[in-house]
Design brief:
This protein has about 230 residues and is mainly α. Helix content is about 70%, strand content about 5%. Helix 3 runs parallel beside helix 7, helix 4 packs across helix 5 and helix 4 packs across helix 7. It is flat.
């Protein structure tokens, strides 16, 4: 029996199988809630909570839920946790609730959550499903926060904290002069543009590493052939 690895499962969700940058899932949330770092972070936390709850419960009930009705059952379970998270957010972080608006409810149809329920939680134990939810949730949060940081800095020139979370005062970290900021980046089109640039950079970096590895392998083969020729002489 294959031994379960916390580390591999976490790394897969955060990096190697990142739901946004690798699988290109959850695009609605990624594009709509990344105008500011604080909003993106808030959405990430809500998604993590829903992922944990739904993954654990679906894993626990995986042998009870009939296969012919599993998708409707998964959606009901996910919708239940989204409703709970939504109510808690409205009660304790009303500014975030108002800022994210309808996109909290749309977590129900987020492909990441339904995908992990079907592909992982329904086939693995509770502990593994919990760790998978943490890894996938952190990967999603990291990805949308990266997009949000780029959009907010280029669009406003600063990172603002305290708009959505109940802090004593608003904190504004000025990164670049506001007069050279490009407001397009905090518009809907800016979400597509920023995500496209980030994905292009990641694809370039991946190709660069693969090219280096291929070159190293070729160099090693050439050295090996030369060594064999010298031995035969």
């Amino acid at each position: 029996m294959k031994k379960f690895s916390y580390k591999k499962t976490l790394i897969a969700g955060i990096i190697t199988e990142n739901p946004v940058f690798v699988s290109l899932l959850g695009m609605c949330s990624t594009l709509a809630t990344t105008k500011s770092l604080e909003a993106a972070f808030g959405m990430g936390i809500l998604v993590i909570l829903v992922l944990i709850g739904s993954n654990v419960l679906i894993s626990f009930l995986r042998n009870i839920i009939p296969s012919e009705a599993k998708i409707p059952c998964y959606i009901i379970i996910i919708a239940t946790f989204v409703t709970i998270v939504k109510m808690l957010c409205e009660a304790f972080i009303p500014a975030l609730y108002t800022g994210l608006g309808v996109f909290i409810s749309l977590i129900v149809v987020n492909c990441i959550i339904l995908g992990r329920a079907e592909a992982y939680a329904s086939k693995n134990g509770v502990r593994a499903s919990f760790v998978d939810a943490i890894g996938t949730g952190l990967g999603f949060t990291m990805a949308i926060c990266i997009v949000a940081i780029i959009r907010e800095i280029l669009g406003t020139g600063a990172i603002t904290i305290g708009q959505y979370f109940p802090l004593p005062s608003k904190i504004i970290i000025q990164i670049i002069p506001s007069n050279i900021a490009i407001s397009l980046f905090v518009e809907p089109a800016g979400g597509f543009l920023t995500l496209g640039l980030v994905l292009a950079f990641l694809a370039w970096n991946k190709n660069r590493k693969e090219t280096k590895n291929i070159a190293k392998e070729k160099e090693a083969k050439v050295k090996e052939m030369k060594l064999k020729e010298e031995v035969t002489k």
